[in-house]
């Protein structure tokens, strides 16, 4: 069964709680109705007893008055009739009794008591019979109502118990089990098991939470793998100049007399170049860290970006002698910016263009001014970048799969370049086509924005 996200669990809880509440409300109403009915039955029984007592009193008083009229017995009979009528003011069945009583009283002769009582007694017998039938009918109805009430209470109680049980099972499978699974995965993930994931079974709110946790865990695991690759790449890049410096230092220490002055000078130049190379790497890493943490601060000043471009092309040509690296652009173009960091921007773009293109291909650097902007272009004849890879090209620590086999790297170069360019108030664009190469284009304002 498929559940719509963000609503199925909420809908179940609402329906379940509503059904249980309705069952308890109906149970309470039924119990209240039963109690009210019980109270009403008690009142009816008390009224019936009082009615029969008054009826008997009236019958005795009327017969005594008819048989022995002395001592104002007819007045007592009238008073008994009045009490009987007051207790049954809306009962038309008393009419025959009242009529027969009046007839008995009107026909009464004090000289000849014991008048004809048959009509009066017949009326009383009929009334008693009707009263018995009415009481029996009421008792039968009350019994049926009591049975129905008990059945309703039993059914509603069963429904409530079954609903609570079924809802409890549903809550366990749909709420508590997924919650415990997410909690367990989070605990294992926090203890270092980056492969911990939640097995999502339902497409509801907790399922969405589980998917969110899985996405977060995958992202953290990916970033951790990228961080480890970054550390390995940094260690590899720093190892090469350190090996050269260490080897030259040991040789100069162990064989100083076997080397001429020119040879010693050449070896010392190697130490200086590799030291400068390490310094550049460390500065790049520092810029990368500052760029990613938002702590990148510029040291602006007047900068001839044309000279920076020419020097970058020259250094790249020396570092990559099997490539043709050329410059085509302005001889002089000054702007306000951080010269050291702009040198790293140009150097990174040029070295990337050479590293990720085949030997014998051409890397072209171009510079021009357009209104208040300096436009830097670096074009290569490499393999190009796919549209999918372009979307994550400037993501920190990300290295494209086809470039990892061509050269080592930290995955921070282009991300740092983009941050430096944006810190100058500029922007970085890239155009690429698979099999034809890539063009990186930097737009820098001539005047550095105040912010």
Key attributes of the depicted protein:
451 residues; alpha+beta; Four Helix Bundle (Hemerythrin (Met), subunit A); Helix Hairpins; Heat Shock Protein 90; 3 domains; five-stranded mixed beta sheet; two-stranded antiparallel ribbon; 11 helices; rod-shaped; disordered N terminus
N-to-C order of helices and strands: HHHHHHEHEEHEEHHHEE
Strand content: 5-15%
Helix content: 55-70%
**SSE-based structural type:** alpha+beta
Helical run tally: 11
Radius of gyration: 53 Å
CATH architecture of the largest domain: Up-down Bundle
What's the CATH first level of the largest domain?
A: Mainly Alpha
Which oligomeric state applies? single chain
How many DSSP E strands?
A: 7
Structural commentary:
- The protein is of the alpha+beta class.
- The chain folds into 3 domains: 5-179, Four Helix Bundle (Hemerythrin (Met), subunit A), CATH 1.20.120; 222-291, Signal transduction histidine kinase, dimerisation/phosphotransfer (DHp) domain (Helix Hairpins); 300-445, Heat Shock Protein 90.
- The protein contains 11 helices and 7 strands.
- It has helices spanning 8-67, 73-87, 95-106, 118-190, 205-254, 261-293, 305-319, 339-355, 387-390, 401-404, 413-423, and strands spanning 301-304, 324-329, 334-337, 362-370, 373-379, 427-433, 437-445.
- The strands form 2 sheets. Strands 2-4-5-7-6 form a 5-stranded mixed beta sheet.
- A hairpin with a 2-residue loop joins strand 4 and strand 5 (373-379).
């Amino acid at each position: 069964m498929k559940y719509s996200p963000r609503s199925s669990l909420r809908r179940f809880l609402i329906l379940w709680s509503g059904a249980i509440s309705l069952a308890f409300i109906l149970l309470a109403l039924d119990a209240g109705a039963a109690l009210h009915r019980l109270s009403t039955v008690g009142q009816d029984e008390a009224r019936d007893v009082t009615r029969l007592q008054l009826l008997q009193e009236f019958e005795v008083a009327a017969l005594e008055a008819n048989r022995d009229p002395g001592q104002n017995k007819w007045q007592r009979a009238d008073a008994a009739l009045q009490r009987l009528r007051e207790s049954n003011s809306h009962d038309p069945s008393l009419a025959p009794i009242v009529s027969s009583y009046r007839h008995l009283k009107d026909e009464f002769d004090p000289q000849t008591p014991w008048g004809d009582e048959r009509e009066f007694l017949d009326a009383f017998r009929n009334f008693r019979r009707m009263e018995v039938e009415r009481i029996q009918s009421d008792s039968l109805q009350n019994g049926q109502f009591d049975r129905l009430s008990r059945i309703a209470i039993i059914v509603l109680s069963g429904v409530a118990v079954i609903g609570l049980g079924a809802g409890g099972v549903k809550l366990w499978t749909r709420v508590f089990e997924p919650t415990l699974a997410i909690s367990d995965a989070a605990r294992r993930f926090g203890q270092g098991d980056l492969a911990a994931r939640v097995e999502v079974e339902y497409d509801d709110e907790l399922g969405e939470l589980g998917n969110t946790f899985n996405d977060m865990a995958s992202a953290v695991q990916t970033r951790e793998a990228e961080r480890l690759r970054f550390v390995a790449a940094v260690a590899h890049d720093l190892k090469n100049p350190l090996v050269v410096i260490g080897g030259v230092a040991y040789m100069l220490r162990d064989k100083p007399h076997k080397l001429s002055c020119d040879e010693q000078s050449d070896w010392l130049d190697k130490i200086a170049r590799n030291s400068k190379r390490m310094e550049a790497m460390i500065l790049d890493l520092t810029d990368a860290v500052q760029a990613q943490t938002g702590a990148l601060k510029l040291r602006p000043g007047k900068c001839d970006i044309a000279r920076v471009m020419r020097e970058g092309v020259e250094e790249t040509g020396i570092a990559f002698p099997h490539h043709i690296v050329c410059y085509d652009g302005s001889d002089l173009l000054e702007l306000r910016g951080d010269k050291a960091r702009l040198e790293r921007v140009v150097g990174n773009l040029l070295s990337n263009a050479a590293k990720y293109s085949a030997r014998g291909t051409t890397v072209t650097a171009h510079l021009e001014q357009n209104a208040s902007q300096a436009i830097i272009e670096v074009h290569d004849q490499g393999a190009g970048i796919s549209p999918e890879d372009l979307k994550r090209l400037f993501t920190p620590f990300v290295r494209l799969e086809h470039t990892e086999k061509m050269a080592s790297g930290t995955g921070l170069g282009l991300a740092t370049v983009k941050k430096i360019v944006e810190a100058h108030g500029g922007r970085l664009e890239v155009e690429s086509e698979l099999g034809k190469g890539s063009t990186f284009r930097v737009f820098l304002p001539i005047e550095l924005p105040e912010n």
